[in-house]
Structure of Kinesin-like protein:
Amino acid sequence: MVENEQLRQELRRCEGELQELRAQPLVPCEGCEHSQESSQLRDKLSQLQLEVAENKGMLSELNLEVQQKTDRLAEVELRLKDCLAEKAQEEERLSRRLRDSNETIASLRAQTPPVKYVIKTVEVESSKTKQALSESQTRNQHLQEQVAMQRQVLKEMEQQLQNSHQLTVQLRAQIAMYEAELERAHGQMLEEMQSLEEDKNRAIEEAFARAQVEMKAVHENLAGVRTNLLTLQPALRTLTNDYNGLKRQVRGFPLLLQEALRSVKAEIGQAIEEVNSNNQELLRKYRRELQLRKKCHNELVRLKGNIRVIARVRPVTKEDGEGPEATNAVTFDPDDDSIIHLLHKGKPVSFELDKVFSPWASQQDVFQEVQALITSCIDGFNVCIFAYGQTGAGKTYTMEGTPENPGINQRALQLLFSEVQEKASDWQYTITVSAAEIYNEVLRDLLGKEPQEKLEIRLCPDGSGQLYVPGLTEFQVQSVDDINKVFEFGYNNRTTEFTNLNEHSSRSHALLIVTVRGVDCSTGLRTTGKLNLVDLAGSERVGKSGAEGNRLREAQHINRSLSALGDVIAALRSRQGHVPFRNSKLTYLLQDSLSGDSKTLMVVQVSPVEKNTSETLYSLKFAERVRSVELGPGSRRTELGSWSSQEHLEWEPACQTPQPTARAHSAPGSGTNSRPGSIRRKLQPSG
Ligand code: ADP
Ligand code: MG
């Protein structure tokens, strides 16, 4: 068939080619090589066409043959199917028979002998059956094996059964035992129940009996309570009566309360009145105490001496120069701060004052010493603080100080401010300041608009005997700022006024007058205290021959006023009837503040260097003399020397008597109390 197909394709192809060739126009081409080939091909074509016809015949033959063979194949297949069905039927039948035989064998096996017989007959019966038999035998064998196995199993089972039988027997025995026990327990329980029942009955009977007894007692109690109730009723009646009585009282209570309030009010009023009168009494006592205090203070001032003299030694400065002239000539007593030693012309001289400040003492140390004086000003006392000493000894430093380290003036005002502040709840204070200078016995206002104007000191027209300076400017100050402004104003006034302020100020007295006026808010009491801070003119003496003209006049004025100051102090201390205040402008101006119960402090400034020892000696003598004015009451008048202006000018340091040894002779153990003793007395001028 394949070959046939190939040939067919070949044929188709050839036919196609032939068609093509036919379609081409026939070009006669003589002598062309193709014509020969064409004829050859034509021949071949015809040959091939022949072959195709031949093959076509063969193909149809073959097709026929294939058809026949296919038919036959279908027939065979049909037959095969039938055979297979037959075979299946046969197999079915055989298997059915085998089953039957097996069953028969099994049944026969049950009755062995006839089975054997049957087997024999069956053996004879057919070979087929024989075969089946052999199969069955093998099966039988297998079954017998199984049977044996089953038998074995059965045996085991029997064994097990036996075991379980035994177990059952045992269990039965146990059950019987348990049952017997149960029986016994039941019996016991019954017995116990019986006894419990009896107990119960007995208890009930007992309880009943007891209850009866208790009942009886309760009955008896009840009878008692009944009788009690009968007695309580009257008590209840009285209580009710009481309650009613109280009720009545409560109703009357507001009236009572009002009554009580009235009486209490009256009592309180009375008490307040008493307190008031007590207060009045206290106020009266307070005033009396105030008076007393002032009196005591006066007394204290009188006893202590109202003039105190301290010395302050300034440090050696650059201005002192160098060499032997600038060596230190002042020493101190390490155990006694009231002694100062001076080496003058090779001889040691000692002085005793109230206190001596060494060059190392600070401004605050010095201020500490004068603090009490300043506060007494608030209580209405007048106070004078003088700085005395030769020019350059430190008077201005002590009084004014430097801006960084202010002196007494500023510190005093600060202290006054703070003290006044503290008392502000009871007292009202005003603090005013004035500044003045005395030059050549002329008083000028440093805070005024006309600093050149000469001021006069006058008696108060109110007849109080007090002095006042008409036209002296007074500034009220409340703070440190205010003071600074005032000082600055005064300083500016002076610098414009004087070409050489330093020189001028060393020859004039500068005064800062602080007035503290107070009113006691509760009593209306008024006080006025004056604090005079005086930077005195230089105390150095000018030789008569050395100075002339202005310089001599200045020196004379200074000398006169310082002498007058000494005289006044002397007269005051000796309680002389006449005190020569009017001898100088300074003493006259300060009259109020120097007399009476006022207090005075003299700070004697000392230069420590060798070249100044003469002036130092002079200053210390002046100081000691001022201080020694006050002595025992009997000796006051007799020991007091007169102190003329001439003396101040010409008094030579002739009496160099006080030797350090003189102190050693004073009574041992006499201590500070004996200070106004030997040295001071020895210093007194004989006449
Ligand atoms: P006075 O006013 O007596 O003429 P000053 O107060 O002007 O003397 O003092 C003279 C110089 O000595 C000033 O330069 C001053 O600063 C100085 N000075 C004075 N005392 C002291 C002191 N305690 N500590 C330091 N310097 C001082
Ligand atoms: Mg000065």
In short: DSSP finds 17 helices and 15 strands in the chain. The CA atoms of residues 185 and 191 lie 10 Å apart. The radius of gyration is 81 Å. Residues 395-396, 505-506, 535 surround magnesium ion (ligand 2) (CB under 6 Å).
